[in-house]
Write a structure and sequence with these properties.
heterodimer; A: mainly alpha; MetI-like fold; about 75% helix; B: alpha/beta; six-stranded mixed beta sheet; 10 helices; 10 strands; about 25% strand; globular
Chain lengths: ~270, ~250
């Protein structure tokens, strides 16, 4: 057990170390405050602000969309449909399958739907595709906790005259608030870190999108493009972009911990 | 003696197991009715039929009828939350809502469309006083209800139930998780409350039944063995099984 912990810690610190070791020297203010200028990809001036903003837009949009769709589903499965255990377990199995589907498949699916509607690559298409990709994660992460809420709490709420939806959104959501925050966090992490699902759907551009119908850059793709460059300077910038991505995820994690602790105090055991 | 709830030919099965067999019972208004019986005899299930929480269970088949003031609540098409609201529930262990003490009581009012802060505040105070909890919590109403002791939580649950103005209070072994002092407080409250409410309480504590019962129902293996006023039941039991149970030589 000690060995496995040591291995995990070692691997993680190596990853973080290599990102920051190669990335930090290139992580200048210019890098996070400017969009790529002419010749950026040859090691000249500019930054990856387009990708930072694009990734944030994309990840926030997709996470909110997935939460709006996923939270009611998780509640429905455990409150409204609690009598239909077989059906609910079937849905759980399906969601677990979807969880395992590689993100490139979601990307390809999103792309084929876009072609059907004659859409071009855009932030909106990316948000919808990524939200579908993180939806199973969101639902199952919430469901796993909602499922263990004691039935006495459901009965208590119902006996006061509330209906199932009121119970779901006024009682269960409070009881499971920390789990919901965790679900949002995991989903956000997946959304902001995924490259394959946005490759065909969001596209890539050097400017910051001003509407959801425009294509947008994202950090994972920006890392990918810079890393494939033969120029050393550009490769280092890929590591700098990875460092930015890591820091964003770190900030989101810390924020969500703070928020969830604030709401967790009312939870009954 | 006016009856508040009238149960007629109630049969209930979960899957292939018959839990309740041909229950016929009139529950008197403004009295404490105690349902006695050994574990697993269907007491809790019977209680859950009254407020239709049985609907939350799987594979349940029910036949018969339960009349609450001449309305068959088992086959009613009208709203279930409305029916449940008429019956406060006190469960075996308290389940305060995951919010602060004040909101625990305000919740029931808010979902029933009362948003006037003045009315809510008065109701919180009135109902906390009703259950003798006001003095203990008046300075920490904004604290999570989960920080109260179990005994306080159970009284809070009673106050929360009273706030939505029920007609009946159902209690499922409400004192089994409590210390003797809190138990006594709940018992005393029940006796006081029968002025305004009809109380139905499930218990397997014989002494508790003797202390507070006006009307006693004795169940065994899903059937009602005997029911009658407390005096009849405890002093002149008719059935052999009842006599055995009262003498504690029952198994």
């Amino acid at each position: 057990m000690q060995i496995s912990i040591a291995v995990i810690v070692l691997v993680l610190s190596l990853i973080v170390f290599s990102i920051f070791y190669r990335g930090l020297p290139s992580l200048t203010w210019e890098m996070i405050s400017q969009t790529p200028k002419g010749g950026y990809y040859f090691g000249k001036e500019g930054g990856v602000l387009n990708a930072i903003i694009g990734s944030l837009y994309l990840a926030f949009g997709a996470t909110i969309l997935a939460l709006v769709m996923g939270l009611p589903v998780a509640m429905l499965m455990n409150i409204h449909l609690r009598k239909f255990k077989k059906l609910v377990n079937g849905v759980r199995f399906l969601l677990d399958l979807l969880w395992g589907v590689p993100s490139i498949v979601y990307g390809a699916f999103g792309f084929s739907v876009m072609i059907f509607f004659g859409m071009k690559t855009s932030l909106l298409a990316g948000i919808i595709t990524v939200s579908l990709f993180i939806l199973p994660i969101m639902i199952r992460a919430i469901d796993e906790v909602v499922k263990n809420v004691p039935v006495g709490l459901l009965e208590a709420s119902m006996s006061l005259g509330s209906n199932k939806s009121q119970t779901a959104f006024m009682v269960y959501v409070r009881q499971c608030s920390s789990a919901i925050v965790t679900a949002i966090m995991i989903s956000f992490g997946r959304a902001i870190g995924d490259a394959a699902s946005v490759l065909f759907t969001t596209g890539y551009t050097d400017s910051i999108p001003t509407s959801v119908m425009q294509p947008s850059a994202t950090l994972p793709l920006s890392i990918f493009f810079q890393l494939s460059s033969p120029i050393q300077e550009v490769q280092n910038r890929a590591y700098a972009s990875a460092a930015i991505l890591t820091i964003i995820i770190l900030i989101i994690s810390v924020l969500s911990r703070i928020i969830s602790n604030k709401y967790n105090k009312n939870k009954i055991s | 003696m006016e009856s508040k709830i009238s149960i007629q030919n109630l049969n209930l099965s979960i899957g292939k197991n018959q839990i309740l067999k041909n229950i016929n019972l009139d529950i008197p208004e403004n009295q404490v009715t105690i349902i006695l019986g050994p574990s697993g005899c269907g007491k809790t299930t019977l209680l859950k039929c009254l407020n239709r929480l049985i609907d939350l269970e799987e594979n349940v088949t029910i036949t018969g009828s339960i009349f609450l003031d001449d309305e068959d609540i088992l086959h009613t098409k009208s709203d279930l939350p409305g029916i449940r609201k008429k019956m406060g529930l006190l469960s075996q262990r308290p389940y305060p809502l995951p919010m602060n003490i004040y909101d625990n009581i305000a919740y029931g009012l808010r979902i029933n469309g009362i948003h006037n802060k003045q009315i809510i505040r008065e109701s919180v105070e009135h109902n906390l006083k009703q259950v003798n909890l006001w003095d203990e919590v008046q300075h920490r109403l904004k604290e999570p209800a989960s920080r109260l002791s179990i005994g306080q939580q159970q009284r809070l649950c009673l106050a929360r139930g009273l706030a939505v103005k029920p007609e009946i209070i159902l209690a499922d072994e409400p004192t089994s998780a409590l210390d003797p002092l809190s138990s006594t407080a709940i018992e005393k409250k029940f006796v006081e409350l029968k002025e305004e409410y009809t109380l139905v309480m499930v218990t397997h504590i014989l002494r508790q039944a003797r202390r507070i019962a006006d009307y006693v129902v004795f169940m065994y293996l899903g059937e009602i063995v005997e029911h009658g006023t407390a005096d009849e039941f405890f002093n002149h039991p008719k059935q052999e099984k009842t006599k055995a149970y009262l003498q504690g030589i029952f198994n």
